[in-house]
Amino acid sequence: MRTERLFNIVAILLSKDTVSAKELANRFNVSTRTIYRDVDVLSVSGVPIYMKKGYGGGISLMDGYKLDKTMLRDEDIESIMMSIGALSATGYKGVDDVIDKFSSIFHQHDVTDWVEIDFTNWATNKNSDKSIEQIKTAILERHLVKITYFSSYGQKTQRTVAPLKLIFKSHAWYVNAYCLDKSDVRMFKILRMREIIVTDESFDREKYLATIPIKKENNFKIESITMKMKFKPKVLYLLYDWYNENDIKLQDDGSYIVTATFPMDEWVYSHILSYGDNVEVLEPLYMKEEIQKRLKNILRVYQKEN
């Protein structure tokens, strides 16, 4: 409690030139004598804090210790505030308190009220939110995690992993982790995790991070596929949600040809089938044949007699 009060006193003094002992005492609900003792503790700890008695006096920090806010432009301050605010989207605790402190220091208020960052789906998956919180805790506390994992091919495995980093990529959460069962770094999709158990066994995060080559750390170990597709004009507005404008080519008949690279897993089939009869896969041939096969299977399901 006292440590937190000492930190807050310094934060207040960074944003104000002078504060009276009575004002601080009222703010923290302690006596002025306690504030004087706090000032002594800060002074002994090396914080250049001093008190001036009489009219216009109070508690202050030496000018050389104050944060030089003139070094930062308004744009820099807003970028800092927005970056901190973005942490709230990951469920990081204490963000609001940090924002309040920085707002006080920089005399900025409501600099993030024009944007809200939300990584959750419209149909919120509470299990996914809980999983992210568990993984985040394991990363921060350096604890091994036991998981049941389903691969993109439907294979169910039991894994023990050392989680290293949470990654949000292409509308989904992943965790970059060292898999003790495979003795290698793997990328796990959070939505495919089941029965997540954060163990009491700790691990050396820096040790595992040091084993990851830079290129390997920044890329997903997922096989990719480049596809050429033909879309009807009516779904053009959807194409801009997923593809780069330069990859969308208008044809003479009004249709659009899109060439794009996808992760080669079950998701790619769901994505293509979501367009219904508004898309035709042109290349590669085996993907076109697989889509045809799946459509026939779907048709058989709905043609069954009740």
Describe the structure.
- The chain has 11 helices and 11 strands.
- Helix 2 (21-28) packs across helix 3 and helix 4 (74-86) packs antiparallel against helix 5.
- It is an alpha+beta fold and 306 residues long.
- The chain folds into 4 domains: 2-65, Orthogonal Bundle (Arc Repressor Mutant, subunit A); 69-106, no CATH class; 126-218, SH3 type barrels (Roll), CATH 2.30.30; 224-303, 2-Layer Sandwich (Alpha-Beta Plaits).
- The longest helix is centred in the last third of the chain and has 19 residues, at 285-303.
- The chain has helices at 2-15, 21-28, 32-44, 74-86, 95-106, 126-141, 205-209, 214-218, 236-242, 266-273, 285-303; strands at residues 49-52, 58-61, 143-150, 156-169, 172-179, 184-189, 193-202, 224-231, 248-250, 256-263, 279-283.
